[in-house]
Amino acid sequence: MEWSLERVREMVAGGMQSMRDCESSAFGTAMCLLLLFVWYCYRVGREHSSSPLRGGYSAEPSRVGGVGGALISAEGDGRAKGRPASVAEEQNSFAYCQSAECFRCTNTGEGLNQRLYHSLQDYAKRYTWSGMGRVHKGVRDQGRYLTSRATIQRPEVFFLPDLPSAPFFSRDAQKHDVELLERSFPALLAEFENIYHAPPARPGSSLPPGWKANSTPHGQWWTFYLVNQGTPLALNARRCPRAWRVLGQLRTFIANNVFGNAYFSVLTPGALITEHYGPTNVRLRCHLGLRVPSSCELVVGGEPQCWSEGSCLLFDDSFLHRAFHEGGPDDGPRVVFMVDLWHPNVAAAERQALDYIFTPGR
């Protein structure tokens, strides 16, 4: 077949036009994809930058309240007003918090709101906004949540919305840790006996080393902390190596933020811990009964429960609650080993963010 020069030119020109058409089509597709990506980034960035966290955060004062140097009360988390931070460690049989960084006892007001706001944003920049919906909502609307909650449940520091709420939880809510604690009952009881019957810490004191006396209208309430507001107490931990190992084996112990505590708690006959709220609903308090005389009771959200030796009680201490020991002098003390566990419906990503936001000393 013979090809004329004109025919070849026509075919070359057609081929080049086809190539240009293809290139134009591919370029157009690429440009469309690029524009879609830019639009997506703009929308995501706009949603975050226009969030109520940015400039629109509620200025309503926090209900943390209190003043520095408050009494360590209400199962380790309450406080009494009117005590200066310089008060002595032990005065009139009561131990006072002296840390300027005590999270619940510092009168922070709006300053707490701003710290939470900045901490959440810093976390999101370092890690991700993914899974932060409820945490974002809780931080954004903290003031409203803390003041508008029903009086039966009113956490004093932080409320995470959309968590299932109940005064008491089944042991299956944190089955692994409950069973581990109950298996450790003999070791924990023996360790309690060692620290409880130790000689007084100093002349004139009725308390063995490491023990603190807390505010009660009647009777005595003593606590021996291994972890206080997320901070380990090294001397006490060394006195209780078996209890410390148990804490290390728990899967859901709140070990890295101010809502986490672990301690032995003693109520003498006639003691009453008055009604109070805990700081947050993201945790469950777990009480392992070590010594439980009759006439001892824990009332949470109006529901009474009795401890049992060797068994755990799980409850949400953001509900109004109180504890008492109405036994006689011969009944001996009520003793529990208390740990703070994560609420089972707080997701792993949320736990990580809350650990960051509520790091001790932040």
Automatic annotation (TrEMBL):
Cell compartments where the protein resides: Membrane
Protein's membrane topology: Single-pass type II membrane protein
Keyword Membrane attached: yes
Key word Cytoplasm present: no
Aspartyl/asparaginy/proline hydroxylase domain boundaries: 214-344
GO CC annotations, alphabetized: membrane
Molecular-function annotations in GO: dioxygenase activity
Keywords, ordered alphabetically: Dioxygenase, Membrane, Oxidoreductase, Signal-anchor, Transmembrane, Transmembrane helix
Official protein name in the record: Aspartate beta-hydroxylase domain-containing protein 2
